[in-house]
Amino acid sequence: MMAKKDFKQGLDFLIQNTKENIENPKVTDKEKTEEPGAQKATYYLNSKNLNTIKAIAWHDRKPIGQVINEALSLYIKNYPDPEKAEKSFRKESGKS
Q: DSSP secondary structure string, the chain?
């Protein structure tokens, strides 16, 4: 014997949720970030490095993206000649 479905909330409940979704448009990724010039990117990372970054972010109470940006900024700062690398990249890839 099958159990009866409980439809106490009725059709109004379903319509109400639909109205809320229409009235509250989704926020895009660009709108979610507070940092100007931010760009969403997807990369495959070494699992151990990613887990360590997550742990550091949790420990410092910072977003993971902020910790990754700080690490990348430090890498660029210590790179011998980042301007030369950028110029070479732009020339070869045709990107301005």
A: -PPPP---SHHHHHHHHHHHHHHSPPPPHHHH--STT---------HHHHHHHHHHHHHHT--HHHHHHHHHHHHHHHSS-HHHHHHHHHHHH---
